[in-house]
Write a structure and sequence with these properties.
The chain has 321 residues and is mainly alpha-helical. It has 15 helices and no strands.
Length: 321
């Protein structure tokens, strides 16, 4: 692990990237992630093996850019922007060329690694479906969202990671991780989503605990609200724990990055357990120091398939079943 942090030039060479134009496209993808999510950029530079970094940045930048197009403005405007972008992406996939640097970087990777386009097509379809999000009536609706939106996004971003199991096995484990991370995201984004008029918890769960949408939007601290939040966190934790088997299904050098991903979401669930109803009263932010400690621990653990690294403060995590 000591030689993991290499120069960007070394990473490009290790990935088989040749030519100034291609190198510039990959560099543009890495800079995009650096500007938009510096912590993610640093984590990738520290934990992804050199030969995988250009391809990881290419896919992550394309996914992030696509998400960014849909994040702001009225629904009609966001939909128009996405539809125009999706048309450009499909054209690039069909022709193998593009005038957009992030698309070109992805095309370079797809060509070098002989990647299928199935997951990028599913990713685009999922983003389009998410623009029409109207909430979940029940758990089946939520699970359909995981299949349509969360899993394709996960599989697209991780598409260049070498597997040691058949793709269908990796996808099965990936779905568990996608389920756990998505439900966690919905919990930690509750405050902002409710403020924007978006309820991401299934209505059947609210009914089960006797909680109203107004209770959540107003940040009420009641036993029912606390139980709803706790049980949702437990469901997310259970999927993450089951999904940890994915560490044994990928090449050794990629385990630190996946361990860090899973660990980060366990940490968020720990925070939800500590904060309780505070998650519906104010925005949630990751703690930079805790994130850095997570990266260091995951790097030191190397090729281990152990997803549960001890916390620096010695605290014992209460994991749901």
């Amino acid at each position: 692990m000591g030689d993991r942090v290499r120069s960007w030039r070394h990473c490009l060479d290790a990935a088989g990237v040749q030519g100034d134009a291609a190198c510039a496209d990959y560099s543009a993808a890495a800079r995009y992630i650096e500007r938009r999510h510096f912590a993610a950029w640093g984590t990738m530079r520290l934990l992804v093996p050199p030969e995988g970094q250009p391809h990881t940045f290419a896919r992550s930048a394309l996914a992030r850019y696509t998400d960014d197009l849909c994040d702001r403005g009225a629904l009609a405007e966001r939909t128009r922007r996405f539809d125009e972008w999706a048309t450009s992406v499909v054209r690039a996939l069909d022709t193998g060329s593009s005038g957009h640097r992030l698309l070109r970087a992805y095309l370079h990777s797809a060509n070098l690694l002989n990647l299928s386009r199935n997951w990028i097509d599913a990713f685009l379809a999922g983003i389009r479906a998410d623009l029409e999000f109207a909430g979940f009536a029940d758990e089946a609706d939520y699970q359909g969202y995981v299949d349509t939106v969360a899993l394709p996004a996960f599989m697209f971003v991780t598409g260049a990671v070498p597997r040691v199991v058949p793709d269908e096995c990796f996808a099965s484990s990936g779905r568990l991780v996608a389920d756990g991370t998505q439900r966690t995201d919905f919990l930690t984004d509750l405050f902002e989503d409710l403020r924007d008029g978006r309820l991401t918890l299934p209505l059947c769960d609210l009914d089960r605990y006797g909680v109203s949408r107004a209770d959540l939007k107003n940040g009420l601290d009641t036993p029912a609200v606390r139980e709803l939040i706790s049980d949702t966190a437990n469901s997310a934790r259970a999927s993450l724990v089951q999904g940890e088997r994915i560490l044994g299904e990928i090449a050794d050098d990629y385990r630190p990055m996946f361990r860090c991903l899973i660990g980060a979401f366990h940490k968020r669930l720990d925070d939800v357990g500590t904060r309780g109803v505070a998650v519906i009263r104010r925005p949630y932010y990751d703690q930079p120091t805790a994130c850095l400690r997570m990266v260091v621990r995951c790097r030191r653990a190397g090729a281990s398939t152990d997803a549960h690294l001890s916390n620096c403060d010695g605290a014992t995590r209460q994991r749901g079943s």
